Automatic annotation (TrEMBL):
Its EC number is 2.3.2.26. Keywords: Membrane, Transferase, Transmembrane, Transmembrane helix, Ubl conjugation pathway. PROSITE patterns: HECT. Pathway: Protein modification; protein ubiquitination. The chain crosses the membrane at residues 149-168. Residues 1-155 form the HECT domain. The gene is WWP2. SUPFAM superfamilies: Hect, E3 ligase catalytic domain. This is HECT-type E3 ubiquitin transferase. One of its GO terms (biological process) is regulation of signal transduction. SMART domains: HECTc. GO terms for molecular function: ubiquitin protein ligase activity. Pfam families: HECT.
């Protein structure tokens, strides 16, 4: 979904980060939820980025390698780190894709769609294997034999094609129940 949101020029969020890199998301949540000054992490507005074995230092903002992350500015750090992770190394490719795409479909036409509708428009309907979906679902606060979960899968099986597709896309294909 983050790519489609970028096509629509929508702001990317922590939820988008969670969908593509749960471990990185959890790290940023830990920083958000803990007093980093007490931990002595000594972080700056800088990060390392590896490309083909070469490690480069990236400043998240001008002068970032000299700016210490504190309790007062950690929200800005988290926002900048999230934006960097969601776009790292893809800026040029995304720009070229959008330039080419806009030659076929004017980007202003896309404003009538949300990111899920845009994905459906561009990728079409896909066959959904409910058994595979059920087998790979991660449950939080429930388990496979909870009556609500059993009902959920019964409804999915009953309404199979359209509604299962809608439910799957509503929860961005990585449904956690």
């Amino acid at each position: 979904m983050p790519f489609y949101k970028r096509m629509l020029n929508k702001k990317l969020t922590m939820k988008d980060l969670e969908s593509i890199d749960p471990e990185f998301y959890n790290s940023l949540c830990w920083i958000r939820d803990n007093n980093i000054e007490e931990c002595g992490l000594e972080m700056t507005f800088c990060t390392d980025f590896e490309v083909l074995g070469k490690i480069s230092e990236v400043e998240l903002k001008t002068g970032g390698k000299d700016i210490q992350v504190t309790e007062e500015n950690k929200e800005e750090y988290i926002e900048l780190m999230m934006q960097w992770r969601l776009t790292r190394g893809q800026e040029a490719q995304t720009r070229y894709f959008l330039e080419g795409f806009s030659e076929v479909v004017p980007l202003e036409w896309l404003k009538y769609f949300d990111e899920r509708e845009l994905e459906l428009l561009l990728c079409g309907m896909q066959e959904i294997d409910i058994n595979d979906w059920q087998k790979h679902t991660i449950y939080r606060h429930y388990n496979r034999s909870s009556k609500q979960i059993i009902w959920f899968w019964q409804v999915c099986a009953y309404y199979y094609y359209y509604y299962s597709f809608y439910i799957l896309h509503t929860y961005q294909a990585d449904i956690v129940l």
